């Protein structure tokens, strides 16, 4: 904000200021991380001149990382297609969707943070052979997600206009955005589950699966349904919002189906009951009781 507006002696740099501020913020985050890593691993110092190429390691990184990269591309592509449909309803609809999408991102942030933690914990416990802990990882991941997302979802239903007024003052934009929040707001509750479920799948190394789930949700459900409902039904613009919620539900369903019945357990010679035991006596002690 300082670089953009230029208060006092600081020159106003407008959009260039936003780019410079982003660069500074990124550097500020990277440098402390590098310093911490250097001190944490003193016995194995980071020495680029001593690095050697390991083809197997590179392939493993690509195997896990490339599907995640494609998944993010699908998300961006899905947004681009949806904005095309929204643009047909005028500038107010476009502005409202842009603001509402930022709200979507804010709501997703805590769920994504939990997903990353769940993914790391799942990988650690699979590596340690403590597979029955995965049940509790999923349970507590969902429990952690619920309070924040539930509150936001309720606020979107009860006071959508007030939320939109935080970002914009134009009446048409507020009303269109409020309609979005009323329809999509309840769908935020799906975030509490599918981000955790996807985290477990990713932690098991099955990032291709979450990529396929995203492809189905975005390319086979959200985009076609948004186009159809907005152009060939009485719902109009609200049909696009409804398609987004339906895609959330589809993502959740597909993720849970693979989580409970998918081949990631078969690859490790497990059954669903090995990971999600049905009887109390089948489970290991609670995570909080573990060393």
UniProtKB/TrEMBL annotation:
Cross-referenced InterPro entries: MATE_fam, Membrane_Transporter-Flippase
Pfam families: MatE
GO cellular component assignments: plasma membrane
GO MF annotation list: antiporter activity; xenobiotic transmembrane transporter activity
Domain of life assignment: Bacteria
Localization of this protein: Cell membrane
Membrane topology: Multi-pass membrane protein
UniProt keyword terms in alphabetical order: Cell membrane, Membrane, Transmembrane, Transmembrane helix, Transport
Residue stretches spanning the membrane: 12-36, 79-100, 106-128, 140-160, 180-201, 208-228, 240-261
Main location: membrane
Record flagged with keyword Metal-binding: no
Keyword Membrane: yes
Protein name: Putative efflux protein, MATE family
Biological source species: Anaerocolumna jejuensis DSM 15929
């Amino acid at each position: 904000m300082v670089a953009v507006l230029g208060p006092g002696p600081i020159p106003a740099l407008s959009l260039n200021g936003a780019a410079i501020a982003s660069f500074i913020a990124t550097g500020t985050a990277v440098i402390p991380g590098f310093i911490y890593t250097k001190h944490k691993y003193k016995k194995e110092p980071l020495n680029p001149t001593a690095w050697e190429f390991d083809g197997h390691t590179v392939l493993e990184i690509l195997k896990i990382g490339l599907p995640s990269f494609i998944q993010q591309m699908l998300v961006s592509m899905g947004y681009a297609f949806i904005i095309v449909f929204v643009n047909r309803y005028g500038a107010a609809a476009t502005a409202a969707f842009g603001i509402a999408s930022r709200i979507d991102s804010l709501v997703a942030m805590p769920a994504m943070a939990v997903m990353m933690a769940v993914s790391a914990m799942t990988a650690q416990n699979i590596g340690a052979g403590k597979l029955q802990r995965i049940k509790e990882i999923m349970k507590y991941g969902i429990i952690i997600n619920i309070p924040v997302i539930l509150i936001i979802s309720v606020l979107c239903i009860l006071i959508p206009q007030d939320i939109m007024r935080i970002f914009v003052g134009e009446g048409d934009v507020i009303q269109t955005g409020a309609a979005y929040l009323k329809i999509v707001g309840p769908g935020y509750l799906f975030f509490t589950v599918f981000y955790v479920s996807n985290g477990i799948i990713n932690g098991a190394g099955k990032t291709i699966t979450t990529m396929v789930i995203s492809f189905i949700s975005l390319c086979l459900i959200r985009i076609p349904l948004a186009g159809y409902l907005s152009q060939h039904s009485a719902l109009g613009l609200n049909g696009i919002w409804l398609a987004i919620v339906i895609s959330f539900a589809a993502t959740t369903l597909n993720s849970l189906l693979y989580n409970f019945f998918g081949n990631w357990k078969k690859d490790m010679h497990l059954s669903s009951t090995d990971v999600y035991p049905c009887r109390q006596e089948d489970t290991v002690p609670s995570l909080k009781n573990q060393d």
